Amino acid sequence: MDLFNDWVKTTGIYNLSWENFVMFGVAFFFMYLAIKKNMESYELLPIGLGVIIANLPLAGMATFDPSTGVHQSSGIFGVIFYYTLSFWNILPPIIFLGLGAITDFSPLINNPKTLLLGAAAQIGIFVSFWGASLTGQFSLKEAASIGIIGGADGPTTIFLTSSLAPDLLGITAVIAYSYMAAVAFIQPPIMKLLTTKKERTIVMKDAGPVNNKLKILFPNIAMFLIILVVPRSAPLISMFMIGNILKESNVVPRLVDAASNELINLSTIFLMITIGTQLNGPEVINIKTLLILGLGLVAFAVGSGSGIILAKIMNLFLKEKINPLIGSAGVSAVPMAARISHHIGQEEDSNNFLLAHAMGPNVAGVIGSAVIAGLFLSLLN
After folding, report:
1. Which of 299, 91, 278 is nearest to 171 (CA)?
2. Model confidence pLDDT, tens digit, residues 273-318
3. Where are the domains of the chain?
4. What is the pLDDT of residues 139-157, one digit of tens each?
5. Angle of helix 287-315 relative to helix 123-134, nearest 10 degrees?
6. DSSP class of residue 121?
7. What is the pTM of this model?
């Protein structure tokens, strides 16, 4: 009988806690959003599967202790977490390479003013950073990792948190991707609150195609200047711009195809499942998680609103007006935020096509959040 009791204590069933069941619910909710609602499916589905793995007691799939030197008993996702995120932090830059290979800078080159909208949308990051600091619950490094959620850029959040606050990596990454998936619910009320019907019907002129030489020059110059000013942003910025240069060169289609398909897909699989495995119920269900959830929402909302407000201010001085709706696309949720700007504009005028214009601040937001991540690394790490 004692042998039987000893065996029972070694089972996962015996070691389940109520926190594990809560996280199972979270995992199935993510899977529901991914499968039934088609919301951020490439991220939420593998994250949900990772959460299930993390909350199966004694499975050990996410365990790894580099100090022991014993790798054979380590879990596969623990090894992936340590070597590709905590130690080397290579998966987010690889994803940025793929993102660069599918990005078109034409809207930003055609209308450089929209770069300011992308910059304004990063204000939410700093609001949340200082908010987290003032709670007294988080260090400056943790506050920076929470603030970057406001950029609504999952890979950047993962990149920064892996270096500054790896203990918060799972929860900050999941919250960032959750808010990216919830763009369609969070942004429209803010956009309608801060704009008038007249502003929402502003029609922006199409500037036409961009010279291919400019398309190649832009990422080269941007990479050169940004990395000179903020060197710690180099892993993300350089890979993003290299991917784009490969695309715009039109001479290496196989490399572009590999970066934008196989490479980014493989990285996404390992990255998202590994992030999910960091969400063990007993470790993440606490008051800090609720604070991070709230601060992340504040950062995202402030970022969305700041871009709109700057567009309204710019219109006081511009002859050719900017539709303020595209200001909310300054957060880095590409291309979801740009699509929402276009959708809200079409609700007011079905002949108003804002998608191409909104992609300008949207791409600028990706650059902006990566630069701020580099700035935080320079100052805090």
Report:
1. 278
2. 999 998 898 888 889 999 999 998 999 899 999 999 999 999 999 9
3. 90-380
4. 999 999 999 998 878 899 9
5. 150
6. T
7. 0.90
